[in-house]
Amino acid sequence: MFNLRKNSFWVLLVAFSILMNSTAFAGAVRAADPPADPDKFDDWSVMGPDGGDVRVIAIDPRDKNRLYISTLDGQIHTSADGGKTWSLLVNLNKPQLILDQLFVDSRDSKIIYASGHRHKAPGGFFRSTDGGLTWKESKELKDESIHAMTQSPTDPNIITVGTTHGVWISRNSGEDWEMLKSNTAPVNIDSLAIDPRSNSTMYAGTWWRAYKTTDSGKSWRLIKDGMIDDSDVFAITINPRNPENIIASACSGIYESQNGGEKWSKIQGIPSQSRRTRDILQHPTVPGTVYAGTTEGFWMTTNGGKSWALTTQRNLEINSIAVHPSEPNRVFIGTNNYGVMVSNDGGRNFAPTNDRFSSRFTYSITADNKSSDRLYATTQNTATGGGFFFTSLDGGRTWQPAKNLDSGRIVPFALDRKSV
C-alpha cells in the first residue's frame, strides 16, 4: 500500500461491487513528473469503504467461524474468524448475477452451493467441491432464474431449487438435475422447504401463496386456508423440533401453521409496513425464538410470536439471517448498504463487521486541496435508492460516512475540488 504525500504520485484503489461488471475500480490517479513506473502498480489491495450489499450469509455447519456471503454481482466472500475479516473467494464473472442462495453442504465443508437470477432472466447454479477454489456451473440450470434452494435434512444428496418455471431436484448433490413435472406444479418459486421427516413432503412459496406436495412432486396443491389470496411467500421455515409447526413470511404478513400448512393464522406484533419479511428463521436450538429480517429492521420474538421487538434501526433492510447451533447467541444478518452485522447477545444489539469487505459502487474519489491524507468518496446504493458520502483522514485506510445525510434519498455524484 502506498503512502500518499505531497509532490508524489497519487494512487488510490477503490474496490467495489457493481451490477454491471468487474470487482475493482481504479479511482483517482494523479502523477507528477517524471512519469510513473508501471511496475509499481502491479499489486492492488482493497481500501473500502467497507460494507455494501449482502444477499446471503451462510455458516459452515462444521465450523462456526467459517462464513460465506454472496452479492448481487456474482461474488462470494469468506471469513475464517467469525466475520471479523473478509476476503474475496470467487468472482463468477457473471454480470448482474444476483446470488440469492448460498450454503455449505451439511456433510462436507469443501462442498459449497450457490445459485441466483437476474430477476426473471437466467442466473444459474454453481457448485464447488474444493472449498471454493474452483466452481462448476450446471448445464441443466444455466437458463433458469433461480430464486430458492434447499438441501434435505435427512438425505443431503437431495437438493431442490425453485425457478420461475418450477421446481428442480438433484439426487446426487447437484451433479445432475431434473425438473419435477406435474400438471399441478407451481411456478415462480420464491422459497422452498423439505419436511425433515420425509423427503416426499415439500413446501413451495410462490409469487401467489404456498403449495405442498406429499408425493415427491408428482402432485401439488395450494395450501391457502387462512392466508390472504395476494400473498408472495418469500420464506418458509420448519420447526426442527416440531415439523408440523411452519412459519411463512409473505407480503401480506407472517403466517404460522400448526398442522403442516393445512391452516394458517397471521402472527401479530410486527407493523404492516415491516411485513415484507425477506428471511425468517426459527432458532435452531432456542425454542420459541424466531427472527424476522424485514425491509424495516430486524424483529425477534422469544415467546413463539406472542410479542415482537425491533432491535435495529428501522431504516435497515435485511436480506438474510444465520445462526450456528453451537453458538446460539451469535446472530449474523446480511443487509442492503451496511454489509454484514453481528449480534453477540441473541439478536438484541448489532454492530457492523465488514473489515476488508466492500461491495459498494464508488462513483468518485476526490483528494483534499490542503490535507494530503484527507480523501472524499461518493458511493451509490445498488439495491436501494440514494448513496453515501465518505471521508478518510488517513489516506484511505479507514472511512467514515457523513452524518445528517439521508442515504436513502440523496445520491452524491462528485465534489467540487475548489470547495475542498
Short description:
With about 425 residues, the chain is mainly beta. The protein has strands at about 10-15, 25-30, 50, 55-60, 65-70, 75-80, 85-90, 100-105, 110-120, 120-130, 135, 145-150, 160-165, 165-170, 180, 190-195, 200-205, 210-215, 220-225, 235-240, 245-250, 255, 265, 275-280, 290-295, 295-300, 310, 320-325, 330-335, 340-345, 350, 360, 360-365, 375-380, 385-390, 400.
Could you characterize the architecture of this molecule?
This protein is mostly beta strands. Helix content is 0%, strand content 41%. The protein contains no helices and 36 strands. It has a 4-stranded antiparallel sheet with strand order 4-5-6-7, with no helix packed on it. Strands 8-9-10-11 form a 4-stranded antiparallel sheet, with no helix packed on it. The chain is globular. The model is unreliable at 1-32 (pLDDT under 50).
